[in-house]
Amino acid sequence: MFPPDYHTHTFFSDGRQSHQELIEQAICNGFVEIGISDHVSVKPVHWACKPSVYKEMKESFPVLKEKYKDKIEVKFGLEMDYIEGQEAETEKLIHYFSPDYVIGSVHFIGDWNFDTDKSGYMGWNMDHLYAEYYRLLGKAAGCGLFDIIGHLDLIKKFNPGKPSIPCLKLDETIEIISRKGICIELNTSGMLKPCAEFYPSDAILKRCIEASIPITLGSDAHISKDQGQFFIEATSLLLSLSCREVVSFTNRQASRVSIGH
């Protein structure tokens, strides 16, 4: 039995299947809880839900929760882009959807989408790049809008190199997350990217656990077969770091789920 997978996407955003297909596969896989967290962004981007589907997406979840209540817990999540200076607009969208949880993610530095455009790395000094990324992530953690910070070290996705000096902004970001009492996710999709490791790295995850930051698990699945990918390895890693619980959300209220005995 897997812990909850809280980072999945449907065709409402950039996934390839319906809510129902993801849920039914999760049941087959032995999940007792699944969270669906389509992209929503105040910045027009191709991977996010179009405003024209907002109403349908919002209204579908009570129906799905009721339909599958005897088989699996279905949680309504959002993955929201953090866009500096547009916090008020982001808050309005979150209020409209009233989700169970919100993942806050940074995919942009200025107008550069580093998550898909690897050419933009060429113009950066790595010390400055990582510092700017973690500055934005710290702002996302501190703004009070999000329950979970998504893929904490996503900036490493294309394996562009590492800072030559310790990144003080990372230290500040971890401190903000800890102080705010929000979660990070252990996102397993990085194993299939050029960086070839979880987000965050083992070393950063260890620091977060030592700072008593709660953890959720997310596959970042865009198709049902990828749900729970590498969760056995992720659970083993958490247990090796003396983390024996992950977090579940209902109406943005956190509770703990045991992953070990």
Question: What does this 3D model show about the protein?
Answer:
The chain is α/β, with parallel strands linked by helices and 261 residues long. The chain is 32% helix and 19% strand. It has 7 helices and 10 strands. The protein has helices at 19-28, 54-67, 87-97, 126-142, 168-180, 202-210, 231-240, and strands spanning 33-40, 73-81, 101-105, 108-109, 112-113, 148-149, 183-187, 215-218, 245-250, 253-258. It has a 6-stranded parallel sheet with strand order 1-2-3-6-7-8. The chain has a two-stranded antiparallel sheet with strand order 4-5. A two-stranded antiparallel sheet has the order 9-10. The longest helix has 17 residues, at 126-142. The radius of gyration is 17 Å and the shape is globular. The chain starts with 18 loop residues before the first helix and ends with a strand. The model has no long low-confidence stretch (mean pLDDT 96).
